[in-house]
Request: fold
Amino acid sequence: MVIIIPEIIKESLNNLVKNGDRADDRSFDQYRDIVLETGVIDKAEGSARVKIGKTQIMVGTKSQLGEPFSDTPNVGVLMTNSELIPMAAPDFEPGPPDERSVELSRVTDRCMREAKVIDLEKLCIIEGKKVWMIFVDLHIIDYDGNLMDAAVLGSMAALMNTKIPEAKVVDDEVVIDEEKKIPLPIKEKALMCTFAKIGGELIVDPSLEEEQVMSSRISIGMRTDGSICSMQKGGMQPLTKDEIIKAVARSKVLTKKLMEHLPQNKQ
Amino acid sequence: MITILTNKILNKSSTPSKRADGRASDDLRPFKIEAGVLERADGSAYLELGGNKVMVAVYGPRELHIRRLMQPDRAVLRCRYNMAPFSVDDRKRPGPDRRSIEISKITSEAIMPAVFLERFPRSTIDVFIEVLEAEGGTRCAGITAASVALADAGVPMRDLVVACAAGKSDGEVVLDLSEAEDKDGEADVPVAIMPRTGEITLLQSDGHLTSEEFEKALNMAIDGCMKLSKAQKEAIIKRYGD
Reply:
């Protein structure tokens, strides 16, 4: 399905930004309202429902025993998957994940992985044979722009909410104690900030309308200490070096504020 | 907007019985229905029934792009029943499997009789049912929520189809089987009706029942449907007023 954005909307959004304004009266560094709940799905090992404005994502985590990859025999596996289900928007089609969905899950995955959010070595049970595999599933149920920030925020919260059964090795056999649940070894937190370029300016947390008219997009994943763990540029137009460096500086402040939405104390 | 309850709050009943969760044989699990919970969809509904959490979105009537599905004299009603990977104990691999394809088919057949499809030739009405958490009886939950979402989308209908299952567990005919009762149970009979006329639009049966037991289960399911039907209407009234 092709979405046609009238030129007049494009022009008015561009003009608004040029005058230092946005369609919903936000400042350039202002997120929409964020609501984050954790532990919403009992069947999942960990879960979160995140809303940024009207964008809504359910995130659930599942654990499974599996074999480690042969090049990393002593670390557990973290896998992120997303479904842009047709419920979320009129142009999302059922079927195998399309490029948008693959990008979303890979960017989320990279942000978590490179930030070393989980101490994956602690998820190894028998080196080279048995490790925990943690699946993070992103279920996008309402799409109103800026899926990436919502996905990373939701994944982070869901991982912090996750409890997996304790696994022990007895006589070379893995014994799982379903009664005893332990939290994941979280050792870092990372979140993502996305800017859209409209009217020559970078504005944070683009709404759907803003995403449709933006010339390009930059998402910056950042750890608590302000170091960068991942980045993804999108959109058809280029960005200058200067713009990117300024975006990084702004995302430092913004990520810090976003972190406040995470449940502070690990359960 | 919706607040998500946890099962612990829901699973409280005072009447003692043989059932594991303490319900009487003709008790439904606690439920709630809400209409208009999503921004993008033309219509939407959220339903909790016991530990089930089901979200439904409706798009349409809208243009149908697949020509071979097009009907010259009416709209097609397409349902897609899908389970979230984290909705069940062992992670479900994303994408349709044989079970969800069958449920999608019978769901659209259950709802179709109630919709004035002939008013929208060559178009489609798409119903997306997402099971966020499953605890037995999701197909019925999906149908009940789908009707509310269709009404929320303003799709003209003869009636609000409502569904509920009855079955046999531990030798007793009971209403609205929970996951545990369904797994160890002897039979499961999901039923959907159009409550104004009482006509049945979905009937499946799985398991062993005598004809007397079947009749009892069917009657019980219809009574359950009537209770849910009230809640469906209340959800729409709550959203739109009288």
User: Anything to note?
Assistant: Chain A has five helices and twelve strands. Residues 198 and 214 of chain A are 5 Å apart (CA to CA).
